[in-house]
Automatic annotation (TrEMBL):
Residue ranges annotated for the LysM domain, each copy included: 31-79
Originating organism: Thiohalorhabdus denitrificans
Protein name: LysM domain-containing protein
SMART domains: LysM
Pfam families per record: LysM (PF01476)
Signal peptide (from-to): 1-19
Keyword annotations: Signal
Length: 347
């Protein structure tokens, strides 16, 4: 993945089936809001709604302007009530077209759904591989560097070998992630294999074949020591953050862990879930986190009563595999821990 600053935008779906009522707005929701540089769609949704995942029910698309789903810094968002339903409309700031510009100007960037300064670098450092696809059986590996050192840094020239080069498109046309060994992830309840978590040591580009099945390559970025023997696999394309937050379907899963195995995590950090596309989960789905249930003595009956876990916070899914997903903690009232339960926020 090429880690560059992305121009991100919001894609809003057609009018919803369920309509908002004015009672579902925040009590302090402003009637006019001017979008600021650095705002995310989630920030703006949380400014108007107690439940930010209901954004698409509030946003009023204007079919008479170009790119009605893009929101830019400087745009004014106007809250009004139409036929008893709240609607958020936009007054767009004027921008020069490229043809009309006579001198360079600083271009405004459409806002993103989440903080890409966190998400994009994260996806450069971590990857998910679905079960049934052994990561080390495909891709390739780093053979040695020109100077045959123990470790290689950004800018170093190295030699790599692909395991099945004849089955690949031009390997020089994409980036490659390097990693040491894949980590198999299992479900904490069933023990089922959910896939692999890869911790990238770096990102490489291949410049061309040199003979004997080798490719001259260059280390473009490092996250950990890049060494001979590191495995390689092709990076995905640029990350697309054009999605709308919405309630996840009626699913139930668990927080497996923080990616770096921290025991307690909070807002802005990223966790791994034991849910994926197989469970109907998509990028943009919002989940509610509940703590583990707990037993208490029942004062009127013999034995104990099982109390449901307390609500702890909200997650936004931003990358999915078949049986695993990455999600960002958007809010939390208590620390989120492994084995915490995740459910649809509308349960």
């Amino acid at each position: 993945m090429r880690l560059r600053t992305l121009l991100l935008a919001l894609t809003v779906l057609p009018l919803p089936v369920w309509a908002l009522s004015p009672d579902e707005l925040r009590t302090d929701a402003p009637s006019v809001y001017t979008v600021k540089k650095g705002d995310t769609l989630w920030d703006i949704a949380a400014t108007f709604l107690d439940d930010p995942w209901r954004w698409e029910e509030l946003w009023d698309r204007n079919a008479y302007i170009s790119n009605p789903d893009l929101i830019y810094p400087g745009d004014r968002l106007l809250l009004r009530i139409v036929d008893g339903e709240p609607r958020l409309t936009r007054q767009r700031v004027e921008r020069l077209s490229p043809e009309a510009e006579e001198k360079p100007v600083q271009r405004l960037e459409a806002i993103s759904t989440v903080d890409t300064s966190v998400v994009v670098p994260f996806l450069g450092r971590y990857g998910i591989v679905d079960p049934g696809n052994e990561p080390t059986d495909r891709g390739g590996y780093l053979v040695a560097g020109q100077n045959e050192r123990a470790m290689y840094a950004t800018g170093d020239r190295v030699f790599t070998r692909l395991k099945e080069p004849e089955g690949l498109e031009d390997p020089t046309a994409q980036d490659w992630h390097s990693y040491k060994e894949p980590e198999a992830i299992r479900d904490p309840d069933s023990g089922a294999h959910l896939g692999y978590l890869l911790r990238h040591t770096g990102t490489l580009t291949m410049e061309g074949p040199t003979g004997d099945g080798l490719f001259a390559s260059r280390v473009e970025r490092t996250f950990a020591p890049v060494e001979a023997g590191n495995h390689l696999y092709p990076a995905d394309g640029d990350y697309e953050a054009r999605f709308t937050p919405k309630a996840a379907p009626d699913v139930e899963g668990r927080v497996l862990r923080h990616v770096d195995k921290e025991s307690l995590v909070g807002q802005g950090q990223i966790v791994v879930l034991n849910l994926g596309t197989r469970d109907g989960l998509e990028k943009g789905h919002v989940l509610r986190v509940q703590g583990s249930s707990r037993s208490v003595d029942d004062p009127q009956r013999w034995g104990s009563a099982e109390l449901p876990g307390r609500n702890k916070g909200t997650l936004l899914v931003f990358q999915t595999g078949k049986r695993l997903s990455f999600a960002m903690i958007m809010s939390n009232s208590r620390a989120i821990a492994p084995r915490d339960r995740v459910v649809s926020p509308e349960r």
